[in-house]
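User: I'm putting together notes for a lab meeting next week and I want to include a structural view of one of the chains we've been expressing. I don't have a solved structure, so I'd like a prediction I can at least talk through. The sequence is below, exactly as it appears in our construct file.
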Amino acid sequence: AFFWLLSLLAASLLWFVSVQLSGREDAALLLLGAAAAVLLQELCRFACFKMLKKADEGLATLSEDGQSPISLQQMAYVSGLSFGIISGVFSIINILADSAGPGTVGIHGDSPYYFITSAFLTMALVLLHTFWGIIFFDACERRHAGGLGLVVGSHLLTSGLTFLNPWYEASLGPIFILTLCTGLWAFGTAGGSFRNVLKCLSCK
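Assistant: Thanks for the context. Below is the predicted structure for the 204-residue chain, given as structure tokens.
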């Protein structure tokens, strides 16, 4: 979560400097700012991986059998989940502040589904960050550039789709399809299989 907050701070500083230098806040600058924020988040995710990798080596050195008590998959899951939770908190906090009033959403032509779709988008982002963490760590460990590129690309795509709001059908649907596909990908990356699911359901 700390690394995600560092990326937010860096993105905020970059946005402030860009606005001051350009003297404008148009859609093009907003798109560039969102893309820069995504890239900074992924850069901080990589820094988190490197730090946890060093910590893992230290734990392995201190253990009696020379093995770390925490697996890479566990670190990836916890890191991704923490990224997702802190991202979700910052995504929804301003919306919750708006919901306290004054005024009611929908009266002046605004979408009455603003709050419910924002909640679903936040949920999707928390899940996506968890899945991205698992895939990203595995790709870094295996030095698989394609996996890293797909994580960054899907993150950029998700961020770009939010600019279609308030046309929620065009943003929410594709984001949830992307969440499902990324979840299946992360499940396979973590070693999951359809056979394991059947064993779990049959309590074997």
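A couple of points you could mention at the meeting. The mean pLDDT is 85. DSSP finds seven helices and no strands in the chain.

User: Perfect, that's what I needed.
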